[in-house]
Amino acid sequence: MRTHIKTIAFDADDTLWVNEPYFQEAENRFCELLATWLPPEAASQELFNTEMKNLHLYGYGIKGVILCMIETLTRVSNGTAQLHLINQVLELGQELLNKPIELLQGVEETLEALHGKYRLVIATKGDLLDQERKLTKSGLQDYFHHIEIMSNKQVTNYQKLLKHLDCSPANFLMLGNSVKSDILPVLALEAFAGHIPFHTTWKHELHEEKVEHPNLISLNNIADIIKHLD
Amino acid sequence: MRTHIKTIAFDADDTLWVNEPYFQEAENRFCELLATWLPPEAASQELFNTEMKNLHLYGYGIKGVILCMIETLTRVSNGTAQLHLINQVLELGQELLNKPIELLQGVEETLEALHGKYRLVIATKGDLLDQERKLTKSGLQDYFHHIEIMSNKQVTNYQKLLKHLDCSPANFLMLGNSVKSDILPVLALEAFAGHIPFHTTWKHELHEEKVEHPNLISLNNIADIIKHLD
Description:
230 residues; elongated; 9 helices; alpha/beta; homodimer
C-alpha cells in the first residue's frame, strides 16, 4: 500500500498545532461568566446546544463560537446579564484569534522528511482568514503545495478535495486527530488514513467506537508516519 | 487578446447575485436599534469604524459583521443597551444567512454561453460556508470548475489563485463589480478584467478614480462579455 501514496493531507488544529486546549480555556472562562445563573457543566452544555443549533448556519470556527456564546449568555441570563459581559465574550474571541501558534512535537521534522517526496497539503475546517493566519504564524507554509479550508469534513467534502487535487483515493493519505472528521470519511472512500490521537477532543468530534480497517494506521505521534511510508 | 482567454473567474456577490442591498437593509435596521444614542449616519459610521478596526482579525463575511454590530452597540450605548437589542442583532445576522439567492439579469444565459468554451471559476470573499450555501442555492454550481473563497482580493491573493489554477495572467479574465477588489489587482498582474457596475457598493470597496487600462473591458451587464470574447 504505502508505495502508492502520492499526496499526504494533514489536519491542522491539534494535528500540526495546539488548538482545542485554547478553545477549552475560552469555554471555561465563558462558563465563569455564567456562574450567576448556572453551574459550569450546565453552562457548557447550554453552549454546546447553541453551537449544534447554529452549526448549519455558522459552520466551524471562532467567529461562530463567539456568536453562540453571546446567544447563550442572553438566553441563560433571561435577558438580565450586564452588557459588559458581552464585551468580555467579544474579548475572549479576539484573544483566541490572537493566540500564538504552538507546534506539536515532531511536526517540523516530519514535514521536512516528507517534503519533496510527497505532495503535502493541509485539509482543515475553521474560519478562512483565521486558518490562513495560523499557517503563516506557524512558519510551515513552504512545506505545503496547497491549503484546503473545508466547510465540513464529510465524505462529499473529501470527494471534492480529491477531485480538486486530481488524486485517486489509492494515492491519498490523510493524517489527523479526529476519528470522525479525519479518518472515517477518508476510509469510506477507500483512501488511507493515519490517526494521531490528541489528548483532548471537542465533544462534537468524539467517536467512541474503536475503528479497525486495513487502510487505517494508528500512530502514537506524527513522526511515526515516516517509518510507515519507508 | 480575447482569443487567449482560457479561464474566466467571476466575483459572486453583486456580480452573480444580489448581496450588498441585503447588507444595507440589515445595516439600516441596525442603525434604527441605535436611534436612542445616535442619528443613522453617525451609527453607520461607528459600525464602519468597528469593521475596519477588526477586519484584520475577522476578515470578510456576515459573522464578522454581526460581531462588529454587537461591539458597536455596546460601545455606542456605553453599556446601557438592553440585552434584547443584542438578540435583535443576532437575528439580523441569521436572517442575512438565510436570504434567498436572487440571480442578477443575464447571469444564467452568460454562463450557459461560456460553459464548455472556457474554464469558469468563482473567486469571492466572505464566510466559507455562507458562500458555499449561496452557490448551492443559486443552482449555478455545475457551470463552475472550481470555487475559490478568498480571505482577501489583493495582488498576492490573485497570484496564489493563478498559481493554484495553473493559469498564466495572459489567459485569465476576472469579471466583477468592485474596481478595488476585482479589477485593479488583476490588472496589476497583467491579466484581464471586466468591470460590471452594480448600483450600490460597500464603502470599503469604493474606488472613485476612473481606471483606464488596455486590459480592462467596461461592461454594462454581464451578458456583454460574450460579444467581447467572440
